[in-house]
Design goal:
Number of strands: 7
Radius of gyration: 22 Å
Structural class: alpha/beta
Shape: globular
Largest sheet: 5 strands, mixed
Helix content: 40-55%
Low-confidence stretches: 1-19
Number of helices: 17
Mean pLDDT: 91
Distance between the termini: 42 Å
């Protein structure tokens, strides 16, 4: 299964009743909903418990029963159920629950942007069916686009290897100003730390999408190859990538018995891209642990601050690399408080700065280099102190204290 990326929209919360514009109808009309209903935003923007999403699902489901043609209600209903399932371990019959909602949408709002958008990557969808739904949704996308629209269909265009619509769409996304400037800054620093022509592998929208926007929206770091780990589970994407790079056939898939075997095969495909192109391979530090299996087993994964670098043939002096790369990073933004309307991803990435360059900090501490120790420690402290969310501030503080006490 291809992992869906970027299911996020901007949230509008008002006192009293919530007033929202229906997506895709082109009318611009606004409808009043009960005050306890919220636009369902993705977990990049904000997170809630499963119970909250369940309550939202029930509220939006009631709206669909009152007005079966209400696209906004259907969209929020479907997304709320999706997040409820995501945050509920072993949710029973998840696919069948979603299938029932899609069948009702097909009956009530057939041929609409909302129906096709929800159908894309829906349960039981074959690859071609999913692509067809994606193209239908893309063609029916409203002129006034939300974060959800940009994020979802940018990923779709990347996945299918579209060259006709993608360049203009990426530029339009950046121009819209919707995407988090903080995440773009963090990604710019990561790319600045890579060698020319390097390959970057991330496994989620926060790690990948801002880099595409930097490359294809801002026109910077276009020499780098930015790849999405989850896309490699799509064999058509793999061969398409190999064809674009002119590196021959994708390594054949052996008989696979365990999920771990699948990950190891995907990592072989990724590693072959690096070997056949002669490019340095880097990986996000925020991927799931299973994404690193091959390089961990080879002791070939090195922490160079903001990134891991894969180097099976030659050891890497991570202290010297962290010294060199820290000077390349523009960390001035850490001196400013995080905005009140910041995404949860902004807060998390700021908190995660305590997990970058900590080896260098301890090296300075051990050598008695107080000035440089204070410089790195101060950077981490700034990253934590600018956070207003107490949960993530405490996480950052505890991480920093743990490293300092080593």
């Amino acid at each position: 299964m291809i992992r869906a990326l970027g299911i996020v929209v901007m949230m509008l919360v008002m006192t009293g009743s919530a007033v929202m514009a229906a997506p895709g109808d082109g009318s611009g009309k606004k409808k009043t909903y009960p005050a306890d209903l919220s636009q369902i935003v993705g977990i990049v923007v904000e997170e809630h418990e499963a119970e909250w999403y369940h309550q939202q699902y029930e509220g939006w489901r009631k709206q669909t029963l009152q007005d079966p043609k209400d696209e906004l209600a259907w969209m929020n209903c479907y997304r709320a159920k999706g997040y409820e399932i995501m945050y509920t371990p072993d949710y029973p019959s998840a696919d069948s629950v979603k299938s029932v909602l899609l069948e009702e949408m097909k009956r009530c709002i057939p041929g609409t942007y909302t129906y096709y958008a929800c159908s894309y990557m829906g349960p039981g969808m074959g690859q071609q069916e999913s692509y067809d739904a994606g193209w239908n949704a893309f063609r029916l996308m409203p002129k006034k686009k939300t974060f959800y629209d940009y994020d979802t269909w940018l990923c779709f265009l990347k996945l299918v290897g579209d060259k006709q619509h993608y360049p203009a769409f990426a530029k339009e996304y950046v121009k819209s100003g919707i995407y988090s400037k903080e995440l773009i800054t963090f990604s710019m620093n990561e790319l600045d730390c890579m060698e020319e022509g390097g390959i970057y592998v991330g496994n989620g929208d926060v790690t990948v999408i801002p880099k595409w926007l930097i490359q294809d929206g801002l026109g910077k770091h276009r020499d780098k190859l930015v790849l999405t780990y989850s896309f490699f589970f799509n064999d058509g994407y793999c061969q398409q990538l190999y064809d674009e790079l002119g590196i021959g056939e994708v390594p054949p898939m052996p008989e696979l018995e365990y999920y771990e075997d699948y990950d190891i095969y995907i990592q072989k495909v990724i590693n072959e891209v690096a070997v056949r192109t002669g490019r340095k391979l880097y990986m996000s530090k925020f991927n799931a642990s299973n994404c690193y299996l091959t390089w961990d087993k080879q002791d070939a994964l090195y922490d160079i601050g903001l990134l891991y670098v894969c180097s099976p043939d030659a050891p890497v002096d991570i202290i010297e690399e962290q010294k060199r790369l820290l000077e390349k990073c523009d960390l001035r933004y850490l001196g400013k408080p995080i905005r009140k309307d910041a995404w949860i991803a902004d807060t998390r990435m700021s908190s995660a700065m305590t997990q970058c360059f900590w080896q260098l900090m301890l090296e300075y501490k051990g050598n008695g280099d107080t000035a440089n120790y204070n410089k790195v420690h101060g950077m981490m402290e700034k990253a934590v102190n600018r956070i207003s969310d107490e949960k993530w501030k405490d996480f950052g503080k505890s991480s920093l204290e743990e490293y300092v006490d080593r």
